[in-house]
Amino acid sequence: RKEVEQDPGPFNVPEGATVAFNCTYSNSASQSFFWYRQDCRKEPKLLMSVYSSGNEDGRFTAQLNRASQYISLLIRDSKLSDSATYLCVVNLLPGGTSYGKLTFGQGTILTVHP
Amino acid sequence: DTEVTQTPKHLVMGMTNKKSLKCEQHMGHRAMYWYKQKAKKPPELMFVYSYEKLSINESVPSRFSPECPNSSLLNLHLHALQPEDSALYLCASSQGAQERKEAFFGQGTRLTVV
Fold it and tell me: How far is it between the farthest Cα atoms of chain B?
């Protein structure tokens, strides 16, 4: 079983649509979780951290379910500029270490069309 | 400022060459990372340095040799590489003291081995 699993998509949605991405992780000791986006031939960029209580940043909402080891990202009112690969990232190390072991899911490709 | 700077941006090298990739950050981060990313795949962790000491080596072949001269710099020395080592090499850093360990990535070095 992969340590971090994502639905690879691709997702093709019209502008204005709502789209949801899901991710599961295998290590119950994992303490921190993130969504990154990566544009073609660019580096991954932090989109948002994922907190246990759920968190929102504008059109983006992230949820974490520790019991199910499940993470989600919801994008509302999709824009053309949201087209990218969305990467679910889990720090496999427990808290207290001075570094992380960030492990990436395989990524979900999103294309938003006019 | 969340900038990680990598040089060079592109590198073409022969299988008998020796070259080095360089990474620099001035965010005071004490954890630095090397990742390798092949086309259409997620980044894969290679090495982690914490407080200038090698903390994780993900069974990387010895033709890749990391070095952390000080808390701001991270190098990756390359020697006798194979064509299959062609990839995007990403450097990242994170604030070791914080629990969340979100990492910030440089733009990467696109390496081609001929």
Answer: 42
